[in-house]
UniProtKB/TrEMBL annotation:
InterPro entries: AAA+_ATPase, ABC_AA/LPS_Transport, ABC_transporter-like_ATP-bd, BCA_ABC_TP_C, P-loop_NTPase. The lineage of its organism: Bacteria, Pseudomonadati, Myxococcota, Polyangia, Polyangiales. GO terms for cellular component: plasma membrane. Residues 2-236 form the ABC transporter domain. It comes from Sorangium cellulosum So0157-2. It holds the Pfam family ABC_tran. GO terms for molecular function: ATP binding; ATP hydrolysis activity. It comes from the Bacteria. Keywords: ATP-binding, Nucleotide-binding, Transport. This is ABC transporter domain-containing protein.
Length: 256
């Protein structure tokens, strides 16, 4: 589905990404973890076209998309959410989601976009709020709206940037089940998250970044037991053991 090959990105004197290479298989959930400042969101920005890489290639479904503008990447079937949700507050919930349908892979007109929006809003549990202004929603509802707007673009690959952040435990549980349902519908997922127990349970594989470099990649149990990951991110070998045993309370790792 996605091949990231030797990606590097610098901002002035900061080397945000350095020779990052990994792949995302069709149909999997790949978790992306690392301390704050590790380059995770920068990597999302490079993959989605917000920032071109200084070096390397990005191949999506067999097509080189390196440096393509975000709207062109979206039309090819790659959608994303953002860590800080910014809905268009003066538009309704339905109108926000319609934008995803209009500018996504299927490029719907207004009528078809409204039908797609209602379908997706029902999926994320916001159907009854479709006519409300987006600015009236609470944090958890805005997270679901952000997800709905991305899903309305009909992506093959969905990039989720901390969709669980700021949610209470009940809301986290509902969002986790929603992510599993989305994958069951055939959408491949690449996600950033600091809630380690959630990542351990959701991810087929995990990639770890530290200071812009890939330091580990593998199945969740392998990554949680990797000494370099424990040192750079988990901070405490005990947390790694708890994660392996499934005994963590779902809290965040060091650097959150």
């Amino acid at each position: 589905m996605l091949h990231v090959q030797g990606i590097a990105r610098r901002f002035g004197g900061l080397q945000a990404l350095s020779d990052v290479t990994f792949g995302v298989a069709d149909g999997e959930i790949l978790g992306l973890i690392g301390p704050n400042g590790a380059g995770k969101t920068t990597l999302f920005n490079v993959v989605s076209g917000v920032h071109p890489p200084d070096k390397g290639r990005i191949v999506f479904r067999g097509q080189d998309i390196t440096g393509l503008a975000p709207y062109r990447v979206a039309r090819l079937g790659l959608a994303r959410t953002f860590q800080i949700v910014r809905p268009l507050h003066d538009l309704t919930v339905r109108e926000n989601v319609m934008l995803g349908a209009c500018y996504g892979r299927e490029r719907h007109g207004r009528g078809a976009a409204a039908r797609v929006a209602d379908e997706v809003l029902a999926l994320v549990g916001l159907g009854e709020r479709a006519a409300q202004l987006a600015g009236s929603l609470n944090v958890a509802q805005k997270k679901r709206l952000e997800l709905a707007r991305a899903l309305a673009a009909r992506p093959y690959l969905l990039l989720l940037d901390e969709v669980l952040a700021g949610l209470n435990p009940a809301e986290v549980g509902r969002m986790i089940e929603m992510i599993r349902h989305i994958r069951a519908q055939g959408v491949t997922i690449l996600m950033i998250e600091h809630l380690m127990q959630a990542m351990m349970s959701l991810s087929d594989r995990i990639v770890v970044l530290d200071y812009g470099k890939l330091i580990a990649e593998g199945e969740p149990r392998e990554v949680a037991a990797d000494p370099s990951v424990i040192e750079a991110y988990l901070g405490d070998p005990k947390l790694g053991r708890e994660l392996l045993a499934g005994g963590s309370d779902g809290g965040s790792a060091r650097g959150d």
